[in-house]
Amino acid sequence: MTDYEARKTYIARRDESMRLVDQVFDSPFKVADLKVPDEIPLDAKPLFLSLVSDDDRKILQIPPMELLKKLKSGTLKAVPVAGVFCRAAVVAQKLVNCCTEFLPDLALMYAKKADEYMEKNGKPMGPFHGFPLSIKELYALEGRAAHWENPDLINNMQTDNAVLVNGLLELGCVPFCRTTAPQFLMSIESFSPMHGLTTNPHNTSLSSGGSSAGEGAMIAIGASHLGLGSDIGGSIRVPAACCGIYGYRPTNGRVPITGADSLTPGYNAIAGVVGPMASSADLITLFMESIESLELWKRDTFAERSAWVPVNPKEVTVGYLLDDGHVKPHPPVERAIKEFISKMEKAQLPFTVKFKPFTPMQHEEAWKIITGLYFPDGGQFLKDALTNSGEKATDQTKMIALENPNCVEHSVKSLYAAQDVRNKYKTAYQKHWKDQGVDVVIMPTVPSAAIVPNTTKYWGYTCVWNLLDYPATIMPIGKVQESDKKDESYTPRNDLDKAHQDLYSPETYANAPVGLQIVTPRWNDELALKMMEVFSHAM
Amino acid sequence: MTDYEARKTYIARRDESMRLVDQVFDSPFKVADLKVPDEIPLDAKPLFLSLVSDDDRKILQIPPMELLKKLKSGTLKAVPVAGVFCRAAVVAQKLVNCCTEFLPDLALMYAKKADEYMEKNGKPMGPFHGFPLSIKELYALEGRAAHWENPDLINNMQTDNAVLVNGLLELGCVPFCRTTAPQFLMSIESFSPMHGLTTNPHNTSLSSGGSSAGEGAMIAIGASHLGLGSDIGGSIRVPAACCGIYGYRPTNGRVPITGADSLTPGYNAIAGVVGPMASSADLITLFMESIESLELWKRDTFAERSAWVPVNPKEVTVGYLLDDGHVKPHPPVERAIKEFISKMEKAQLPFTVKFKPFTPMQHEEAWKIITGLYFPDGGQFLKDALTNSGEKATDQTKMIALENPNCVEHSVKSLYAAQDVRNKYKTAYQKHWKDQGVDVVIMPTVPSAAIVPNTTKYWGYTCVWNLLDYPATIMPIGKVQESDKKDESYTPRNDLDKAHQDLYSPETYANAPVGLQIVTPRWNDELALKMMEVFSHAM
């Protein structure tokens, strides 16, 4: 990795903000004194817990809804909790390389605000009073750069906070760090030449998934409970699944995107959305209820009017999709979903849930359509950014754009023809879904448990829902087991499938989580989250 | 006008469907026997009423909400009422040239359905039980062509009804005719080479406005109470204003567009929307309440989830804009709005309404942005359609596209740059509006009372709200008076303004209506319609 200007700026900023942690928060545990072993073990979480101080560990190990309760009742003050999470972020960074910047100054400011509010009013300032919030780097923060892991934007200074960030500050959240993503955010892996690889806390030889790579790793290792991600092809869901946490891609327009949408101004072929990642399903639902209560659509002219309408179904038909017919999931993924269904069929759920198979509709075609619409300029914008900055294209950038056969420079005429194909696919899928008589679909998130770095060639399990703009949410349902043997009798369907099957052994993916994807049609977000809540409580 | 194939097909279909009216509905008044004078008088409405039969006239003159009440109570049966409106459409067609096709077969079928439902169930089938509905030609109707006044699509057969049409059929509506529009629907006037000029019933030397030209004329002459239009630059609002009726452009996504969106597949630079036109404000509100109660977003994957949320404000601040600073409205427009404000300030309204001036933000710039985004292929699509069909471009098609300096062929890069300019304008206008502290803006719809055929060079009073996607609704507030003298002392600001001022004399625009435009920010449709309801009841 050569030392080009953007990387130097990046590292300098990050390290400077790291030093600030000890200055801003007074604690006997100084992050400057941290001694991290040269070799990080496969499972990084025990090491993480051993490196933080005893006092900090007590706070970090409080379950999220209980931590929130303690903050809202005043049992815990926001300022010391903010210090704990700032220090934890540094420890996490040293183990899995997940932070682009630490925000001790902001954390102190907003934590003080919360404490002062409670002092004065005797009640919490909002549903997230004093709750620590990690933020994917792309979100605009006033007075700081937002670069989208685009080295050409390293000094892209922001004059306002993103609309969503402001909403969360009003709800009481305390921002404490910004998190990593792959180059241009256009990969479901976690490598960027600026910061290197973000690794998976469950198995540090694996990727944490992407593009919201740092959020996945931060929450999985236990250094954050709630974070902000973004998703145009699986970027919230894949790291959530890879890291064994929760993550939700809302219907486009429900969560305001202004201030988190500036990588490709004017682009609108595929909708990128923003949404939460969390250590519990309940946090995701609370996030959505609270954010929609603010009516942020009144402040963001690109958001749709929406309000959270809780659902209380009597009976739900769940379609299950184990294999999209193009790339077959590895054995632990299929096994975990089958076990999950069997468990839920026996569980006492608050309403009737019927499972039946769901047949996918041309997901390979969806992959072709969406990869033909991600870069309608044929990737020229990426090439220019790399030329300007001197950064090299990663293999994943080549895979999705620069060497992708579907990534061609469109004329306006061919762009609209491609968008018409997209629209017809949407209309056809709507009918296809209805014809199968299901309310919800459950399925893999990726066809593997986490990801071996630099092996991804297909995002079809997630990006089909970006193409259709269907809400989808992720919950952990298990881990790879030694008994998940490779099926040696399986004959791959195509080269892609063969390459994918060849990757598998239970040793390679040891301890890696499997994330279940729960999907509903557009604007049925409430049902998707209700199912996640019910399923996760029954697990 | 040469006799090219599309025009021959068009005329043959229209005349064949006209003959069907006498065959389908049994009445002593045969449309085949109609004797229409060679010279149509300036005011066509008295002639219209004298040409229909006495029995039909009684039905046609029932005020709309009363007609609906009689149909819903069973006092009037749907089948005979359908016959009356089918015959009235033919009379209207002969006077102002407003129909592309008559639908007596469909009218009978759906009217029978309503009557049979009431017979069987003793109650109306829906809020529009048996109510006649006219439909702009572009809406898909199963088994019929939809050509969008594009001669190249004259045989563009449709396999389904538009989603909105199906919704209205479920609500009880009875479709009885399809109505005219200008070439490619891309004009706020009413001329198409296929059918010629649709004239204004209030002054037949004037245009009825466009592009929903036939709907405006049909409703103004009294041959329909409720119709469907579409609007990408003013196409519902301009004919509503020109014809002295009501018309409403909803926020994009509220009223489902599938089946009325096929002229330019895959296009999405500016959102075209569909919406109602009517003879009363109450019909518009009932339309929206009823349509949204059907939750058609569940059937149209391109619609947003929305529900009608009635508003009951205590105080409303109304900004008034008399002149956009680029093209000054003719004297009757300014006078009518000033009189309207003065009247409303004295009226007993159900809540406090405060008026204050509203300053526009660069509406000339909005016109440049939107005309640069209507045809990102530089109009090649239009040229191809004309070459294929042998139809000639109208002057209005030349004005907005083929000879418009802003209409250039974009690359994907320049398209996204132009869309970014659009987005920044949206964001800036949101702030601009807020800074002025108004809830609603009232303003002209066009800078004249109706339109002298083939004179339009600017849609800035309406298209700025398409660019911003703000809901806007139209109500009649007066007519041109002899005393509306030309202001001879006025010095035009620019060539466009000069050409516009030169058109004016009270004689040229005699009897022409002035339509007030009522605008609110995105998703505040309920407030716009509430203001229209309150204002129109106070008039």
From TrEMBL, chains A, B:
Entry keyword set: Hydrolase
InterPro entries: Amidase_dom, AS_sf
Pfam entry (one): Amidase
Active site: K136, S211, S235
Keyword Disulfide bond in record: no
Binding residue positions for substrate: L185, S211, I232, G233, G234, S235
Domain Amidase: from-to ranges: 85-528
Domain of life assignment: Eukaryota
GO MF entry, a single one: hydrolase activity
The keyword Hydrolase appears for this protein: yes
Segments traversing the membrane: none
Family: Belongs to the amidase family.
Protein name: Amidase signature domain-containing protein
Originating species: Yarrowia lipolytica (Candida lipolytica)
